[in-house]
Amino acid sequence: MLLAADEPAPVRLLRPDGAGDFVLTADHAGNRIPRALGDLGLAASERRRHIAWDIGIAGVSERLSALLDAPAVLQTYSRLVIDCNRAPGHPTSIPVRSEATDVPGNAALDAAARAARQAAIFDPYHRAVAGLLDARAAAGRRSVLVAMHSFTPVFHGRRRTVEIGVLSHRDRRLADIVLALLREAGEFAVGDNEPYAITDTSDYTVPVHGEGRGLVHVELEIRQDLIETAADQAQWAERVARLLRAAAARL
């Protein structure tokens, strides 16, 4: 077993019986590393960087869940252990290098070591998402999936000017509404599939749980320097709650 009995569960489920239509996911909410893996050969400063997690998104998602009375599924462990937004086996599922940082603890892993990480962290997280959506469908509840992420202001030495990104793939029903609302407000630099774009191979949560189920969905990316503090996270949760309520009214 990769996780000891006294270590945190790999997933946190907030408000599973929430009355709202929105369902939130946060694939990169935590940066813990299982005790059995030590520090993956990385200094503490590296484990606090964006390479390890989506800085600030846990706080935003927790507050947003409360504001919308929305279920939220949050990942506890670092994406450097295993990335819950990549299909197992993808080259960046268990990265040996993230941006310009080598991850010694991920080098030369055998199949058993990879399978242990998947079984301990990836599978329980996605079972929780699937189980929540299944239960809501069985009860005749509508589910609108919102995948919550944050992104670093500087990547490979290049500064990003986008402040909030609205990501989609084949189904743009909700993304187009959210983009229109953000552009009408004119408060922030908005990216349409920036700084990232969803694909079938580079992403997992939206293709599997959103598109795969035919759910209305969107992925939101907030720049990390805007949500570093608890006050910033609360303010952005309020903004996103207003945004999603307005978008739902237009669906």
Question: Mind sketching the topology for me?
Answer:
Layout: E1 11-14, E2 22-26, H1 44-47, H2 57-68, E3 72-75, E4 97-98, E5 101-102, H3 111-138, E6 144-151, E7 154-155, E8 158-159, E9 164-167, H4 173-185, E10 190-192, H5 205-210, E11 217-223, H6 230-250
Our count of helices gives 6
* CATH class assignment of the domain at 11-29 and 54-72 and 120-250: Alpha Beta
- Helical residue percent? 25-40%
Q: Quick one: CATH superfamily of the domain at 11-29 and 54-72 and 120-250?
A: Zn-dependent exopeptidases
Number of strands: 11
User: What is the CA-atom radius of gyration, in angstroms?
Assistant: 17 Å
Explain the overall architecture.
The chain is of the alpha/beta class. The mean pLDDT is 97. It has helices at residues 44-47, 57-68, 111-138, 173-185, 205-210, 230-250; strands at 11-14, 22-26, 72-75, 97-98, 101-102, 144-151, 154-155, 158-159, 164-167, 190-192, 217-223. A hairpin with a 2-residue loop joins strand 4 and strand 5 (101-102). The relative contact order is 0.18. Helix 2 (57-68) packs across helix 6 and helix 4 packs across helix 6 (230-250). It is built from six helices and eleven strands. It has a domain at 11-29 and 54-72 and 120-250: Aminopeptidase, CATH 3.40.630.40. A seven-stranded mixed sheet has the order 1-3-2-6-11-9-10, with helices on both faces. Strands 4-5 form a two-stranded antiparallel ribbon.
